[in-house]
Amino acid sequence: MLDTKNKMPLLGGILIFLLLSCRSSNQETIRVENIICQPIICEDNYIIGGPREMALSDSILTVMDAKSDSMLLFFNVKSGKYLGKAGIRGQGPSEFTVLSSLESHGGGSFSFYDINKKTFYYTNSVMGDGVQFIPAFRVDSGLPLEVHPMANGKFIAPGIYEEYRYCVLDSSGQVHNTFGEWPYRDEDEKKVSGIVRSQAYMFGIAPSPSKTKFIASLLSADILSFYQLENDSVHLLKETILTYPDYEYRNSPTVYSGASKDSPINYLCATCSENYVYVLYSGKNFRQDALASFSGNVIYVYTWNGNKIAMLKSDKMLGKICLAEDGKTMYAIAYDLDPVLVQFPLPQWE
What domain of life is recorded for the organism (predicted)? Predict the structure, then answer.
């Protein structure tokens, strides 16, 4: 028979084992996959200066370049060829300034939004002769930074707003309705001007191929929001708030001072299928990594109900990602000495 002195260490060991078992069962366990990037374009007659966004329509991959003299670069991913560029930078009637919201419009055509001109555009099919830009509407109210077409004929327009988080536009660019509230960490921050909070919590959105769902992801904080379109309204499926932006705020500030350079850069961009969401993550900060903080080699995979199911680890640093229409291939801009277009097959999650 064990005496009391021998029983105590044994009971203590069992207790520690049970506590560690409970802790391990509560930790997040997700599938991890390593990915190897392969170049898409065999030619070396193209230069990507400052990639801002990318989108795929049929076999045509378009890169929005913030530093090129022409702001849209076109590639054929099936033939591996660079097709050319269009969209001259400038203030003229057929020129552009600051673009966002690049998306496929089907059949090798695209849509995008010029922030300074506050005008939404479609292109013709890039597979034809010459690229044409067709202005669809101008937004006369508010300051939208993105404009994305949705399945109900409306457009979701996140931007800098005082009283709401999203503006919904009709097909003529008029405000149909507004919804959403900017996040806040406490009652003190809740009193801060919405104009300032909208800049501190600035995010980008990525719709599903059917335009019935979209995700909002933040650069300045670990916040993800999953939405679904329901008839003429938008329903929040799930929102995860793990961190908040590190910036100075007061009850009535007049100017946004910017996020701290010591804060980690979070989500660089997202791309979606009907079943899954892929979010490119950085985790670096600007003070230590400078411009390299705007790239990352980790892609998190979520379901549309906001559950994280996997992590992809790339052999190269990536700046932008784009999903093929069949959901089986990912295209990306990778960084070696210069930005290059790459691709890699995706694991199947079902």
Answer: Bacteria
pLDDT at 100 over 60: yes
3-state SS assignment for residue 71: strand
- Model confidence over 2-23: pLDDT tens digits? 344 444 444 444 444 444 444 3
Q: Is 346 helix (H, G, I), strand (E, B) or coil?
A: coil
Contact 164, 180 (CB under 8 A): yes
Q: What integer pLDDT is reported at residue 311 of this predicted model? A: 97
Q: Give the chain's domains with CATH numbers.
A: 28-181+202-244+261-345 (2.120.10.30)
Give the length of the chain: 350
Residue closest to 347 by CA, chosen among 331, 332, 325, 330: 330
Does the pLDDT value for residue 69 go beyond 90?
no
pTM of the model: 0.89
Residue type, position 308, single letter: K
Burial label for 243, CB within 10 Å (0-12, 13-18, 19+), is: middle
